[in-house]
TrEMBL record:
Lineage: Bacteria, Bacillati, Actinomycetota, Actinomycetes, Kitasatosporales
Protein's recorded name: N-acetyltransferase domain-containing protein
Domain N-acetyltransferase: 37-125
Originating organism: Streptomyces nojiriensis
UniProt-listed SUPFAM superfamilies: Acyl-CoA N-acyltransferases (Nat)
Gene3D superfamilies membership: 3.40.630.30
Record-linked InterPro entries: Acyl_CoA_acyltransferase (IPR016181), GNAT_dom (IPR000182)
């Protein structure tokens, strides 16, 4: 695993990540809002080919009379021809371990398409039943329960009282509001 602040990602790997994302999500725009302090994690093979990538995004989230220091997984992608071989799973597990070791992070929180929930659960994240992330901005929100979405919200808590904090995030609408670039992470 290799990690970089997105702004420091060398040109070669940055190009490979952009090409991989465009291949998997045609029409996507590479990169994230710098205000979210994006960090790129890569799994590369022996010759330096990016075989899987993801981004970590960071933002404080006010909820339940507290402000949590949250990180989210975004743009998790694996070369299509290597899917099912554990590459993405290794990268997601490494991202969770990195976040758990970071004293500046209280929780990892993100949404995914419902069929992918088991993949993230295998890496140590838990589904938060009934939880909705509200992305976008307060003036132009985008929620994970919008018509046409089939999303679930997952989390891992790294606080002194993870049970209490899990309860605070379960079955509620979470004001994520990461902006208009990364409307949901």
């Amino acid at each position: 695993m290799i990690g970089y602040a997105e702004a420091d990602l060398p040109a070669g790997p940055a190009r490979q990540v952009a090409e991989l994302e465009a291949r998997v999500w045609p029409g996507s725009t590479p990169g994230h809002d710098p205000a979210l302090h994006p960090r790129t994690m890569l799994l590369v093979d022996a010759v330096g080919t990016v075989i899987a990538a993801l981004s970590l995004l960071y933002k404080p989230i006010p909820l339940a009379d507290r402000t949590y220091r949250a990180a989210g997984l975004s743009s998790v992608v694996t070369l299509p021809e290597l899917r099912g071989r554990g590459c993405g799973a290794r990268l997601v597990a490494a991202a969770r371990a990195e976040l758990a070791a970071d004293p500046a992070v209280d929780l990892a929180l993100f949404s995914c398409d419902r069929p992918l929930a088991a993949f993230y659960e295998a890496a140590g994240f838990d589904v938060l039943p009934g939880t909705v992330l509200v992305g976008g901005t307060p003036e132009d929100p985008l929620a994970t329960d919008e018509p046409g979405f089939d999303k679930v919200v997952l989390a891992a808590f790294f606080t002194d009282d993870p049970g209490r904090d899990r309860a605070a995030f379960t079955g509620v609408r979470v004001p994520l509001h990461p902006g208009n670039t990364d409307r949901l992470w």
